[in-house]
């Protein structure tokens, strides 16, 4: 369990009001819930807490059953950064969902985590909130344990119920404009830059690599991007996928070429903001064909930035 205090408690015995969920993508539906949590906490002079997970529960169960994971909209680092930047939350708690947690009954989860470890007094959750082994826990179980629980009713955005499932559906169609509307921002990925196979550097096209390991990203293809490193914004071309031409495709990667930049950035934290879709990720017959296409991608990206400015 990871606890990140955004603000310090005003008093020792201050009441805590929490919400809990995957919060994948932090879309407008999530923000409606967070804003209500903030308003209720302020009205009651209480601390506001968001409880989330990493690994996400559905990812854990997919791994256990040997099925492909549902695509992830946002990485944990981005989720935490976005929540912290909002200044609406006092504390973020990240629970590692594993075999032990999956076995907890609703009563055990409430007693072990909500009551003993986190000292939750009140919760705000969606009407369909479920928890505990086999998702048997409901709002009634929270109330039975003496946790005051409010049921949150979502407000639609432009007559649409915004959900993570909707964002994933739009991502499969590369509908970046609608995604931007429903998230309130572009999709972004933040992680530490790791060393790749150095192949692109040999062709005069060095890249920065963010290794996602088992996390399956919701976007897939070649994109125009902004990249933020140490407060500096760079223009880039980003490949999200498995690099099928040059790798065995066992892990997911985010690989970005910074336009007209060649500097050592290994080990730094980078945020890749996705701006526009260029084309699907393809497997080419040879490296010459691959890099010929990559140079064209660079030209297309430069054209985008000229139009944008």
UniProtKB/TrEMBL annotation:
Pathway: Cofactor biosynthesis; FAD biosynthesis; FAD from FMN: step 1/1; Cofactor biosynthesis; FMN biosynthesis; FMN from riboflavin (ATP route): step 1/1. Its EC number is 2.7.1.26, 2.7.7.2. It is an enzyme of class 2 (transferase). It catalyses: FMN + ATP + H(+) = FAD + diphosphate; riboflavin + ATP = FMN + ADP + H(+). Residues 182-306 form the Riboflavin kinase domain. One of its GO terms (biological process) is riboflavin biosynthetic process. It comes from the Bacteria. InterPro entries: FAD_synthase, Riboflavin_kinase, Riboflavin_kinase_bac, Riboflavin_kinase_bac/euk, Riboflavin_kinase_dom_sf, Rossmann-like_a/b/a_fold. GO terms for molecular function: ATP binding; FMN adenylyltransferase activity; riboflavin kinase activity. Catalyzes the phosphorylation of riboflavin to FMN followed by the adenylation of FMN to FAD. Belongs to the ribF family. PANTHER family: RIBOFLAVIN KINASE, RIBOFLAVIN KINASE/FMN ADENYLYLTRANSFERASE. This is Riboflavin biosynthesis protein. It comes from Aquella oligotrophica. The gene is ribF.
């Amino acid at each position: 369990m990871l606890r990140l205090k955004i603000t310090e408690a005003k008093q020792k015995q201050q009441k805590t009001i929490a919400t809990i969920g995957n919060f994948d993508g932090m879309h407008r539906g999530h923000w409606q819930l967070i804003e209500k949590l903030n308003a209720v906490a302020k009205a009651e002079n209480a601390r506001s807490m968001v409880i989330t997970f990493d690994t996400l529960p559905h990812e854990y169960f997919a791994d256990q059953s040997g099925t492909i994971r549902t695509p992830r909209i946002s990485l944990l680092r981005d989720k935490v950064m976005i929540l912290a930047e909002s200044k609406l939350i006092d504390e973020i708690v990240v629970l590692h969902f594993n075999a032990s947690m999956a076995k907890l009954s609703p009563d055990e989860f409430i007693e072990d985590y909500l009551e003993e470890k986190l000292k939750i007094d009140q919760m705000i959750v969606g009407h369909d909130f479920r928890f505990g082994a086999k998702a048997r826990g409901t709002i009634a179980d929270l109330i039975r344990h003496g946790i005051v629980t409010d049921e949150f009713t979502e407000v639609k955005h432009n007559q649409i119920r915004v959900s993570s499932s909707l964002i994933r559906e739009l991502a499969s169609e590369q509908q970046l404009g609608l995604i931007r509307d429903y998230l309130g921002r572009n999709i972004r990925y933040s992680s530490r830059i790791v060393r790749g196979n150095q192949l692109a550097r040999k062709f005069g096209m060095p890249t920065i690599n963010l290794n996602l390991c088992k996390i399956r990203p919701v976007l897939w293809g070649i994109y125009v991007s902004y990249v933020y490193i140490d407060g500096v914004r760079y223009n880039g071309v980003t490949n999200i996928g498995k690099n099928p031409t040059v790798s065995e495709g066992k892990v997911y990667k985010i690989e970005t070429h910074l336009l007209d930049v060649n500097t050592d950035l290994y080990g730094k934290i980078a945020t890749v903001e996705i701006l526009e879709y260029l084309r699907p990720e393809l497997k080419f017959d040879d490296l010459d064909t691959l890099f010929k296409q990559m140079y064209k991608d660079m030209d297309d990206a430069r054209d985008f930035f000229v139009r944008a400015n």
